[in-house]
Amino acid sequence: IKVDTGMGRLGVWHRDALSFIDKINNLAFIDMEGVFTHLSSADSDTDFTNEQIAIFDTILRKLESRGVNIRLRHVANSAGLIDFKSSHYNLVRPGIIIYGLIPSFGIQVKVKPVLSLKTKIIYIKKTPKGRSISYGRSFVTKKNTMIATLPVGYGDGYPRALSNKAKVLIRGQEASIVGRVCMDQIMIDVGHIKNVKTADTVTLIGKNKENIIRAEDLAALSDTICYEIVCGIGNRIPRIYTD
After folding, report:
1. What SS3 state is found at 56?
2. How many CB atoms lie within 10 A of CB 228?
3. CB under 8 Å, gap of 24 or more: what pairs does 84-89 form?
4. What is the pLDDT of residues 133-167, one digit of tens each?
5. Which H, E and C letters describe 176-226, residue by residue?
6. Is 3-99 assigned to CATH 3.40.50.150?
7. 74-93 pLDDT, tens per residue?
8. Domain ranges of the chain
C-alpha cells in the first residue's frame, strides 16, 4: 500500500490511509505484504522529510494498535538512505546511488560512477582566427587552432544547454566544446593537445587518466539534475557492459 505523505504523486493521502487500509484488510483473498511512502525532498528539506517520516510512523503505530501488522515497511530513497537513518525501517530503495551518482550536490558521500560515455573523433581541420563554429555563430575562434568534430549531439541526449560550456577529455586533457551542440555532432577545440587524430577516443562522461567529468558536472552546467543527464542518453548510443 502506498501512502502519500507529501510527494503528491501516487498513493492514498495519509489522512485517509487508515480507513483505506482497514477496507483492504477486510477483503477476502487479499494479503497486505507492504506499506511505503516516498520522500519528496530528502536531499533539500530536512524539516519536511522528518515530517513525512513522522506521519508514516504515526500510521504504523495506529495500525499496530488495531492489530494490523504489515510486514514490509519502506521509505528511504537514495537521499533518505544516506542522511535519514530513521527512514530505513526493514527495507530501503536506493535508486541513482547504486549507479555511483549523487542525488544532490548537498549530499556528502563517496561513490564510484559505473557509467562512462565515450565517442571518437570523426573529423579534424585547421581553423584560422576569426572563423565561426556551428549554428548561430555563437563561437568565433580567437586564434588559429584545430577543431575536431564528434558524432554525438542532442539527438543522442547530449544537452544543447552545454553549448560553449562543457568540456570533454582527450588523451587525459580537457578540450572545450565550441559552438552550439548540434543534433548529431559537436565541435571541440583541440589546438592545445598534441598528436590528436581521427578515431581518438573522447570521454564525455567518465575518467580519462587523472581527469574526470561527472554526470553531476554536466547537470550543473545544464541547470538540471544528473538523473536527466543519464536518462537522456539515447538508443543510438551502443551500450557496452563490463564486469
Report:
1. helix
2. 14
3. 84/39, 84/42, 84/49, 84/50, 84/53, 86/50, 86/53, 87/39, 87/42, 87/49, 87/53
4. 999 999 999 999 999 999 999 999 999 999 999 99
5. EEECCCCCCCEEEECCCCCCCCCCCEEEEEEEECCEEECHHHHHHHHCCCH
6. no
7. 999 999 999 999 999 999 99
8. 3-99, 117-231
Q: How confident is the model at residue 105 (pLDDT cuts 50, 70, 90)?
A: confident
Q: Which residues pair with 126 in a beta bridge?
A: 146
pLDDT band at 210 (very low <50, low <70, confident <90, very high): very high
The reported pTM is 0.89
- Average of per-residue pLDDT across 204-231: 95
Beta bridge partners of 188: 148, 177
Return the residue matching grid coordinates 575562434: 141
Please state, in angstroms and rounded to a whole number, the distance separating the CA atoms of residues 36 and 186.
Answer: 44
Helix axes 14-25, 46-65, angle to 10 degrees: 30
- Let me know if domain 117-231 sits in CATH 2.40.37.10: yes
Cα distance between residue 113 and residue 121, in whole Å: 24
Cα atoms in the Cβ-side hemisphere of radius 13 Å centred on 38? 13
Residue for grid cell 487500509: 21
- Sign of the Cα torsion 150, 155, 158, 161 reads positive
Name the residue among 21, 41, 17, 40 with its Cα closest to residue 31. 21
